[in-house]
Write a structure and sequence with these properties.
By secondary structure, the chain is mainly β. It has a domain of 65 residues: OB fold (Dihydrolipoamide Acetyltransferase, E2P) (Beta Barrel). It is 5% helix and 40% strand.
C-alpha cells in the first residue's frame, strides 16, 4: 500500500488552499422578481444589484417576493451581483 495523500481542499478561484473569499453582507429591499430565482435588490446605500437565492433558502422553500427585506452577500470583486442568504421578517406580519 502506497502512502498517497489527497490534494488540499481549494475554497477559492485562485487555487490557494484554505483561504476563503471575503464577502460583504448588506441589507436591501427586493424591487423586482426575475426568472430563475434572480431578483433586483436595492441596497440600503441605494445601489441596485442582481441577487440570486442561496441553496439553503431554496432547499427550505422560503418564498421571496418583491417588497421583502433581505440580507445579501456581495463579493469584494464583483459588487453588481450577490447571493441572498436571509429573508428578514416584516415587523407588521405574524410569520
Amino acid at each position: 500500500m502506497s502512502n498517497i495523500t489527497p490534494p488540499p481542499l481549494v475554497d477559492n478561484s485562485r487555487g490557494l488552499p484554505g483561504m476563503k473569499e471575503q464577502k460583504w453582507i448588506h441589507e436591501g429591499l427586493i424591487t423586482e422578481s426575475l426568472p430563475n430565482g434572480m431578483f433586483r435588490v436595492r441596497l440600503d446605500n441605494e445601489d441596485l444589484i442582481l441577487g440570486y437565492v442561496s441553496g439553503r433558502i431554496r432547499r427550505s422553500f422560503i418564498r421571496i417576493l418583491p417588497g421583502d427585506r433581505v440580507k445579501i452577500e456581495v463579493s469584494r470583486y464583483d459588487s453588481t451581483r450577490g447571493r441572498i442568504i436571509y429573508r428578514l421578517r416584516n415587523k407588521d406580519s405574524t410569520d
